[in-house]
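Human: We require from you a standard protein entry with sequence in single-letter code and fold as tokens, and nothing else.

Assistant:
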Amino acid sequence: MRPAGFSLFIVLAAAVLISGCAGTGIVRKSCTDCHKEEVARFKAEGKLHRPLAEGRCEGCHVQHGLLGALALKSPGAGLCYGCHGGARDMLEKPPVHAPVVEGKCLRCHDPHSSRFKGLRRLEGNNLCYQCHEKGPFDKKTGHMAVDRGCGSCHDPHSSGRSYALLQEGNDLCLNCHDPASGASVRAHSGYKPEGTDCLRCHEPHSPGGDSLTREYSHPPFLERKCADCHNPVDSAEPLKTTPVKDKLCYDCHRGLEEGYKRAHTHSPVAEGNCTVCHDPHASDQKNELVLVEKELCYSCHRGSEERHEKRFIHTAVERGLCSGCHRPHASDNEKILRAVGAELCYECHERDGFVNVAVTHAPVENSTCLPCHDAHASDYESVLVSREDDACYACHVDERKKFAKAIRHGKVREGNCSGCHKPHGGSVEKLLRAEKEELCFICHYAEDKKKIPYWGGAHTVFAEGKCLECHDSHASNNPWVLRDVGSRLCYRCHEEVEAGLKKAGVRHKPLVDGKCLGCHRPHGSGIKGALSRPMKSLCVECHADFGAELKEAPFTHEPVAFGDCKVCHNMHYTEQRGLLVASGKVICNSCHADQAGEAFVDAHAGIPTKGSDCTGCHDSHGSADRRLLHKVKHEPFEKGDCAGCHEKM
């Protein structure tokens, strides 16, 4: 629950709010009673927005009393249309100016006051340059209309015409220019331009040259040699050309006609329609193209544009350079290509990375890139014709079946063949990215690889990078993509262990069960024999009862204390009970060799023990007796009465 003080605060705040709005004697205050400084500033700045001029701040704002807040009655353009609703249909004729579309009237208009017409935030073109970069409109030569202001040609909201023009085409130009005037005719070399499209030749804003013509001009047009192509000025049809079509072009471009007689000719060239692609007068595009190259090509190849709208686009297509691969006029190659196969690709892509290598991918060797890559666009990285693995399986059909197993290498599962193989060429067999002894370590166990020199128990195949001795590089039905399971995998190399196990009378249970990894780490460890942990703790993990007894024994056999079980036991198999390395009569001799010596005999009450089984009396692991004697003893033995049964030496 909220404290009572909070409720009291709400009541007092409400009272203050009411008194702020109503005042003494319920006399309502206006916004200007409090915001006098703001109103004075707005008046000084220029013309006031009508609601403000009339003191109707609540026309836009929600009244707030003494609790400060700034809240509009509705967001965005919806508020403006509350008064300017009659203009809404007119203001939203497509295409519409971006701020109008976004409902951001205040991007251009000040909501309170302005020195400029229409409450604009800035004067003239400077307002437009807040969004539109000024550079293209401020070049060497400027159209007078630009100086007069963008609004002389464009509606700032919408007009229902392209680029929000006030009028369509030449009608807009005729407001200022008279094509029949003597000045206009003289400017057009004596030809009357009436009825022609002004923008075919003229840049409407600010070209980079000395005149208002577009950036690239046909030489006869630039040099005002109109009669080189058109009939004389005083003829009945002065703007017509003779001869017609390409015959006229070849009059100047001599030699090209024969050059275009190739096996494959671009259809406009074959039909003699040069002006399908080129403007005979001027253009903003190099070579006087009538449109940007990409748009020009799509104007005929309409289906191509949609096909090219994919995630990954060939650089030439993305830059709109169709002519980077295709000749625009004619070629001896299909599809008017500049060259055949990979030779075309090598015009941009460095050849050395593909062919001057020890091992080359078959498609590259056959000089054809398109079995793998789309020439234009694709939804797959590197503009592949399909998902990477599917592209590979298109040729490597059998591999798809081989790799259809329960466990697949991560790269195979991801379809990332190029994670291990170079797709074009390389210096290692099978196009591997590195020698097979190093390849796996690029992704796997790189840190362990560095530790190998310091390991006491590195698995040889791991240390030598022979991962494929145990793992399949692509897929397997076994865990970890292993070539086999359990001890069968180990016996591929350790044949002698398998052979010895079959002959042995006593065998270690994990080995019988095929669980080599119960004791060993498959790659190696810091412990000799690649053991998964120190030997003592490893053994007692299974021999738990023995481990518990050992903890309670105050006296421990030295090999046990040092955790060196293998001094007495064979880890895999033997012919002796308890996996001992030798019989009880022999095993102790390796450490206690002088059994006939005086000190040894005296320790055994003068009784000769040579040839005896030491384990008959001694516990080989640990005992409560410092002599490691068994817990249960023969009564004469326990009393030290050995002579009752044995003769002294």
